[in-house]
Amino acid sequence: MAISSTPSMARGTELRERPGQISDPAPIMYFTSPCADAAQKLVWLKVTIAAALICGFGLSWRLWISSRLFPLSPVGDYLPAVPFPFDRIWFFLLLTLLLAIALTSRPHKLIASFLALTGLLSLWDQTRWQPWFYQYFFMLAALVFYTWKKPETKNRNAALSTCRLIVVLTYFWSGVQKLNANFVKEAWPDFVSAMFHRLSEAVQALPPFLILMVPLLEILVALGLLTRKYRNVAVVFAVAIHILILLLLVASGENTVVWPWNIAMALFVVILFWQGKGPSAREILMPKNPLHAVVLLLFGILPVFSFVDLWDSYLSSALYSGNTDQAVIYVSPAVIDRIPAAIHPHIWRRSAPFFLDINRWAYGELNVPAYPEPRIYRRVTEQVCRYAENSPDIKLMIKEKPNPFTGLRKTEFYDCDHLDAVP
Questions:
Q1: How far is CA 299 from CA 139, 167, 171, 179, in A?
Q2: What is the pLDDT of residues 207-248, one digit of tens each?
């Protein structure tokens, strides 16, 4: 994959930049060079993140507007919904900023503007805190926090180290979250059944230790990326993992919004880790500045608390882990008649009891999964209760995270009158 540049070309493309500039006079050669310097890597990192965000936003555009049926879940009721057409203007402004970020050689002000606008917009709806957006947001923050400062070389390396830390910890916690019985029994068989539907029973019959090789491989990739000796091997395995995941996702035709994420992750490991001596594990893990410390806290330490429900699952790399809360809303035929017709396709009506699948509704309208936290499920149920004037025929059922060893879940039920009583 790598094509080395000649020594003369490497000398001839030395960068002389003003503060805030991330320029690249020969981007293709820089990307393919195994010894690309920090400035070259930052250019491709910037372009990859911007392109991935454009794809993610485009595939989930209804997530980022207010004029929709799926309820907003703001961080506080004091935030009124952004009205039409300002929600759409805001969204298109974000896309314009991303395009400018990808094409501009001095994008630090544009990145700062984008982070401010998306940070504000995410306060209006916690469903927007999708794992891919969360990761991209802080990787962009690393770029804008460092690259305009002097000394340039030191700060470029700091930006890259922060992004490396985010990638490593994402792999690590993604693997740890999958080390549970529910991943073996349900999550992984469901995930692969789209491609291997004829072999679904055989997949479910596989010994648990074989299925657990999937999360263990993710953890090993994370550890390998930290080492200089096994870094290239880890990159190869990481790229192979994302190719496999992408094939499975394309075969299923679902969750298209994470297709670009898998491509971006494969590019991230190549840009940040491939064929370079690079920093040691200590240099990646040990905070040297405030943002690096914040990233270590958010991506490395706080995910521990997700196992005791003190930190959100999607902020802890738990997508497709089987280790999240689940919920459905039980409804009667009379309630269904009061719910907007656009929601009806997401209601199970083949046999009693009838229920509205919150996750399917989110996929169907927003093209993202529902943010899997009880407070969000209750917020969605509040909207359904308003449609049906707080009918007693509405019941929210929340299945808590499974026991990691047995896969069993505790179940809670709420009616319309008791949703607000829960802290």
A1: 12, 9, 10, 18
A2: 777 889 999 999 999 999 999 999 999 999 999 999 999 998
- Half-sphere exposure (CA, 13 Å, Cβ side) for 386? 8
Element spanning 246, H or E: helix 231-252
Which residues, in sequence order, are bridge partners of residue 355?
Answer: 330, 348
Q: Which of 172, 164, 171 is nearest to 278 (CA)?
A: 164
Residues 99-144: tens digit of each pLDDT: 999 999 889 999 999 999 999 999 999 999 999 999 999 999 999 9
Residue 214: closest CA among 247, 171, 252, 255 = 171
Residues whose CB is less than 8 angstroms from the CB of residue 243 and which lie 6 or more positions away in sequence, other chains included: 266
The DSSP letter of residue 187 is I
CA distance 159 to 144: 9
What is the pLDDT confidence band of residue 4, given thresholds at 50, 70 and 90? very low
> Is the pLDDT at 59 greater than 80, yes or no?
yes
In the beta sheet, which residues pair with residue 326? Answer: 399
DSSP reduced 3-state for 390? coil
Give 26-77 as a DSSP string: SHHHHHH-TT--HHHHHHHHHHHHHHHHHHHHHHTGGGG-SSSSSPP--SST
How far apart CA 306 and CA 244 sit, in angstroms, is: 27
Using alpha carbons only, give the angle 94, 95, 100 rounded to the nearest 5 degrees. Answer: 95
CA proximity to 106, closest of 155, 145, 147, 51: 147
Cα–Cα dist 357/343, whole Å:
10
H or E element, residue 326: strand 326-331
C-alpha–C-alpha distance, residues 177 and 166, integer Å: 16
pLDDT band for position 350 (50/70/90)? confident
CA atoms within 13 Å, Cβ hemisphere of 50: 23
Q: Which helix (H) or strand (E) holds 29?
A: helix 27-32
pTM: 0.89
Cα dihedral sign for 194, 411, 75, 358? positive
* 8-state DSSP, 289: S
- Helix count (H) and strand count (E) of the chain? 19, 5
